[in-house]
User: Fold these one by one.
Assistant:
Number 1:
Amino acid sequence: MSAELARPSWADKLPTRVTKTVYGLAIASLISQVGIIVSGGAVRLTKSGLGCSEWPNCMPGTMTPVPEMGIHGLIEFGNRLLTFVLLAIAIAFLVSIWRMRTTHRTLFVLGWVLLLGIPFQGVIGGITVWSRLNPWVVSLHFLLSMTLVMLAMLLVNRTAREYKQLRTPVQDRTIQQVAWVAWFAAILAIIFGTIVTGTGPHAGDATAPRHMFDPLLVTRMHTAPVYLLVLATVILLVLAAKRQAGAQFTRALYWLVAIILVQAAIGYIQHFIGLPIGLVILHMLGSGLLGIAATNVWDKAVLLPKSPSIEN
């Protein structure tokens, strides 16, 4: 009897610090969250938004597509199946940090928010189908995915900080304030981008409703915060050089610059050549990467605890 009591439980075998596995699961969460944005874009761009005409069933009487639904049913159903991959990763991450739930509260809370956000995202996906792809609901569906991407980026940073034993350089108040502006501008650009999408030709189905806005006007609305983002990023580059912000923060800025340049190039090209679906899907991927890069810069400037040490 005493031997049975002394036998360790499954939880006793879990790590008490951030390991390579924990860090890897955080990265997997980030990649999968971006992946479902891209797969959702593929659903819309291939006009498969109503490939499954019901939710939670794919069609009346069946959870899975039938041959009569063709490729559109397979594409939409495949996107739905990815939700279970996200759930599996989120659950695995929470299990991996179970023994750290009191010592690493931030990781535990972020893990729970990501897990709970996934079924909520599925419900909004169902409302999207019920509304026959109403562009406002489609936008909400995308923006929740983007929120989960940003939270997953914070999770990666938090796990990396311990696993790689990173030390954070002191950031001054001006850098913090400008980083807030850059992050807010990136979010506005992403939000306005969904309005441009809802006004454009790629509705996800020929019968789906569209915004009746002036396409040129909403495109200008979308680019306005991009100019603010560019200005804030340039200021951050100057401040980082003058005030020796450190290699971590500077690398994060360089990634943000690279993504802004590529995303802007794709955006302008697709606008002037008629929104080909290949470039549109790349622009959606770029939106996810922009959210990641802006959150990374913001996190390193504002949210990480300050330390008087010099970073490695």
Number 2:
Amino acid sequence: MGATAAIGAVLIALAGPAVAKAPAAVPDGFISLFDGKTLSGWRGDMTLWSVRDGAITGGSEQLIDKNTYLILEREFPNFELRFKYRFANDFGNSGIQFRSGQVPGNFAMAGMQANVTPITKDIDRFAMLYDELGDRQEMVLLGQRAEVTRIQSGGGGTGRIVRSVTEMVNPREAILKAVKPTGEAWNEGVVIVHGNRVVQAVNGYLAIDATINDPLSPRDGLIGLQLHISKPSYVQFKDIVIKPLDSFPDISGRFISNPVPAPEPRRTYKDSTRVKTPDTPLPE
């Protein structure tokens, strides 16, 4: 089956009648956030979110004209979140919003996001840590172990967002090679958040390891699933479970990680809220 036919088949499957499937067993210490049948415990635009084939499904066969979210009605400030996801088409875009707030709009959110996408041309943005509607924008990019801070700019009231990369936790090519193709295959994601540290893994590969030392960064808030502005597209999530954390867990040896040196420049800053604004090297 060709790529176009495969995408069409998935679209038909997602748009068809809902078929209930039993969710996977919940690991010890975790709480299920989705019963496999309903969107109980979540709020959002229900013209765009539904349950299909035992999975939370976001999307439309029409133009999606703004970012919108399915928002969990319970807050978890420190947690480990596990989930499976897949896209119906290669231009899809989504994410796990956390420590976030709801803002005016069609269930719009602002705050940190663990990016969830198919493999795109902008490979450094796959599985990145992003600041939705915030001034930090692309906080930590694919493969980076990095610290994010905020400093004065020119001694006045303007701030700079500084990213300092110590190493690459994996070569980007190794992470992307582990991603399953768009269509029927499911990818597995893990997001761990505690205190000032955020870790994301994809299919067993460590994707980012972030230390957030920005004094304006919130330490609690809402969790949500993103449906991004797009041409007609669909994203699905299932087996979504969460474990509240009292401390950051020992993840040594848990995820595949083969560190390599980070390319220069390793310390950069942004003064702009515009998406994809290039970072500027910052002298030590």
Number 3:
Amino acid sequence: MTTALSPRTPGLALPHGLPGILTSEARLMARNPALVVWVAALPLIASIVLGAIPATTRPVADLDGSSWFTAYQPILVMFSAVLLSVQILPDVLTRYREMGILRRLRTTPASPAALLAAQVILCLAVEVVVVAAMVGVPAAFGAPLPRNGIGFVLALAFAVAAMLSIGMVLASAFRSNKIAAAVGTVLFFALQFFAGLWIPRASMPGWLRGISDGTPSGSAVGALTSAIDGGWPSLLHLGVLAAWTVVLAAVSVRVFRWE
């Protein structure tokens, strides 16, 4: 006697309705001016400007021998990743919850998990495209490429995973779109501070750099910087990013509500 498999049988199948939801969400995301200007255009333009000025690509003693370009390239990468994760992602999901879209999704053949998967896939795709442009376009103006490309990709993967985990916690913990946006804004500035936006990590006193190493954005910049300089991301930085990702992902799954 044979039994037909249920559509809900666990396996490697994609969430039901993912292709359609992914297409729809991609169109909506493309119409978001904040995404284009802040996540893509601003860090890309800053990277091009830094890469096009010869003085910014020369080693500086105050930056431990790095140039201003190599010091700020990973910071600009994290500017894009943090903004996408703590502002764009929570904004979409909390608005959908307030409007009852998540609740209505549960009554349709489409799986609510497909919406979450679509958001994560789109955020990853956007970040990959933006980072590729931030690395490739300045190189056309004479800026150096990361000396360890594989290490750079590895560090980026760990960094983006940690940032998306933060965004999912915000989207899960707050029912109000305005509160999620306010908390996300505070987090954005805090994460950018520890990433070195205002004080580059190479210029931080030892105690502050130690605190930065314990934050997801600080460890992300540290890992990316090591790869840009030709080394491998340290186990400390990758371990910190992995720990943040696992803990925050578990928290977001625990507290997430569709209504």
